[in-house]
């Protein structure tokens, strides 16, 4: 690196930063203009505001590490960075190439064995717009830039890796597969990083579709979501909903766990049958005949009559709530003949009169709501847990607070919503919303109309518009951002779904995700050897065949970027206990061997700098909560008191130093 070269590259980087600043200013000005534009149709304006806001946020996060690399070929030179910048005066010639563009790809994939036309690959080290240095990596597999990145101390949140994506990772990030992609790999192989960069890549390659539908990222717990939550915004992407499996049913947010036995019961597919039975159990027959008092006679609504009506309602093939009116009609039909028998007369109009009387009769209506109640998913499950479970052969499901939802209840609530159908609540809410809007519009028109200053022969607002029309204009647009709308709507379907730590999800969880992603565009990352959940995956085929038979692909990552080789060798014992045939990933770095001590205070190992965690069966950080996280120094307390999978997870969290303390 000569001083002249450094100055030339600094000039280039300064120029790119100036360009970025210009583009930022232009996008902001356009956004301000769109926000103030009163003439533009409202819908157009909202689309423009949304697109421009996204553009502004994308450009504003790009300044840090704006340009991180350069590749030279025999006839071209490409600067690679976080966003694309173009020379608008020179036919949109690229000044900086977005890391996701095809032209940037050789930056990640060229090797000495397969240089892809690349003669030089250069990595820049920058701070803001200041170039601190650069180096050329001779197209080696493991570059200095990677080792520097891996040796850097970690912070509380995960960072993006655009400057140092490795070839095996790049292949997965850009894989053109449209269905389900499973990325498997041991601890620290960059599965999470790769999945998030794949989202950023897909948002780049299929922006039109994905920004309309959004992307859902499912992670194991809130701590993990906080840890990874900055990666996509740092890449300028915001149309992403993050959720734990305990948050996938709108209105419920839980991290309570059932016992492993209950998790297994609720997580297996037989839970669907249990719910079908629970719904059937709510289609009841009267124990005693219910008297229906007509004008002339009292007809007993017997179990036989209700049974007849129930058969008809069940045969209608509708969902439970939607079949209630069918049950009502069938009950009325079934009561006509006994009523006529009791009246003892029959002439053509009499049957029609009796039917009419029965149809509107409060006794019949009460019987319908008692025997075939409209239910919400929560009511169905709460009643089940409050005691109905015993009659269905599962007394173990009974619990003191039936509404204390657990993570394993969430897929059951979702399944129940499917079985029950609409309870009318959403429609009622929409109708109430609409009534309020019309009332508001009427108020607005009234104010305009009673304005004293108005002349009698002037055209008045009410001559031109009515309240319904005004209400339409008022409520047409939903102002919430996509992520909020999607998270609140159980029937929202996402353009792409990412599932991290996917080995933890139960068969019932997968059914929820299948509903949220009917196009089966998914990236699933996990490691079967790290499974801690009783109802989790033991075999990808078993999980994915029902979801996307013939449409899923499997890729494996083999290099460990987190844990030094010495720590990985130590953790290999735990891995062998989980699965004797499993192969541990190969670490790229070496470090100090783990330290084993007895009876020491775990907190005495807290280093002066860097991130630190104590993982112990009793907390503060349990192996379960440590899933997916990493720290510079980790103290694992009493690994023998953990299951082999928990031990394997706990021992593979350190990026530098591992201490094992036995109490
Ligand atoms: N190409 C890369 N350049 C720089 N850092 C990387 C790269 N790939 C992975 N890393 C870093 O390695 C660490 C481990 O990555 P990540 O958490 O994605 O692994 P994982 O496979 O999801 O691990 P686990 O299974 O334990 O959750 C992170 O700090 C990540 O930033």
Automatic annotation (TrEMBL):
Molecular function GO terms recorded: 3'-5' DNA helicase activity; ATP binding; DNA binding; hydrolase activity
Keywords associated with the record: ATP-binding, Helicase, Hydrolase, Nucleotide-binding
Biological processes annotated in GO: recombinational repair
One cellular component term from this protein's GO annotations in UniProt: cytosol
One Pfam family hit: UvrD-helicase
Domain UvrD-like helicase ATP-binding: 164-564
Keyword Coiled coil belongs to the record: no
Sites where the protein binds ATP: 185-192
Name the UniProt record assigns to this protein: DNA helicase IV
Source organism of this protein record: Saccharothrix texasensis
